[in-house]
Write a sequence for this structure.
């Protein structure tokens, strides 16, 4: 598997931030935690990892801009390139000692996603994808699952935070989906949910009220693994609109019908 220089830069940065998260995961009780809203936490670990990512990526690609969860928009001198960064996706899991969390970094070139990296430092699973170059977990090429029928399918989802209008919609969607599928899972990291669709561990995923950094790398990963990704109306506003449905060519349209 050949990685472009840009992807290598992203992988190196993510591995370094992964070491920071692993250290903080070992001392989670000592971390400063605050909330951004009901059930929406941010900790010193999120900030440490974001600082590492920003420093490493800036050192290697000084002109590129950023969209980062904790620091927001950082304009670069190169208007064509920006990194979309979630330094810790799955903060709630992290703070509870649940080893399901990840770093997610995507690279946009002229508004097109060209590379994505998702790394779970607790399991050492490194997911990478480049536009036109396929998707990988560590060195293994990924392919979405082949299941065709909802009754055989395991579907991942995300539960919108309390207080979001989509919280009530979710209950209705869940009751429709769970009546038709083999199982529903809620892992707590949208980036890893998408990585699991790409690797065929789950057959589909849907969620509302997400942010670009939750899904940017995962969208590319699913597409490069042969899957389909749209927003919940079947369009392509997944980055700006916040809703997402992913799956293989059979499960994606069936799931979309149930949730839209
Ligand atoms: C969260 C995770 C979670 C999703 C939330 C996100 P964070 O990201 O992706 O799975 O359900 O909507 O906010 O805050 O842990 O980076
Ligand atoms: Ca967050
Ligand atoms: Ca996130
Ligand atoms: Ca985050």
């Amino acid at each position: 598997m050949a990685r472009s220089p840009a992807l290598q830069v992203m992988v190196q940065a993510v591995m370094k931030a992964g070491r920071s998260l692993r250290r903080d995961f070992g001392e989670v009780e000592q971390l400063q935690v605050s909330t951004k809203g009901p059930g929406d936490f941010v900790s010193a670990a999120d900030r440490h990892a974001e600082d590492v990512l920003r420093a490493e990526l800036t050192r290697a690609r000084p002109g590129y801009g950023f969209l980062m969860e904790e620091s927001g928009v950082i304009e670069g001198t190169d208007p064509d390139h920006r990194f979309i960064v979630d330094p810790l996706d799955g903060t709630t899991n992290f703070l509870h000692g649940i080893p399901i969390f990840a770093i997610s970094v995507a690279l946009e070139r002229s508004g097109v996603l060209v590379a994505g990296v998702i790394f779970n430092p607790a399991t050492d699973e490194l997911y990478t994808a480049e536009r036109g170059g396929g998707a990988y977990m560590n060195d293994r090429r990924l392919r979405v699952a082949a299941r065709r029928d909802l009754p055989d399918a395991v579907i991942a989802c995300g539960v919108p935070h309390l207080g979001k209008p989509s919280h009530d919609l979710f209950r209705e969607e869940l009751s429709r989906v769970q009546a038709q599928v083999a199982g529903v899972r809620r892992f707590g990291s949208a980036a890893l949910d998408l990585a699991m669709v790409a690797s065929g561990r789950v057959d589909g995923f849907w969620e509302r009220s997400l942010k670009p950094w939750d899904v940017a790398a995962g969208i590319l990963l699913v597409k490069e693994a042969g899957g389909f990704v749209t927003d919940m109306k079947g369009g392509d506003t997944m980055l700006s609109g916040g809703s997402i449905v992913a799956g293989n060519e059979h499960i994606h349209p069936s799931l979309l019908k149930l949730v839209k």
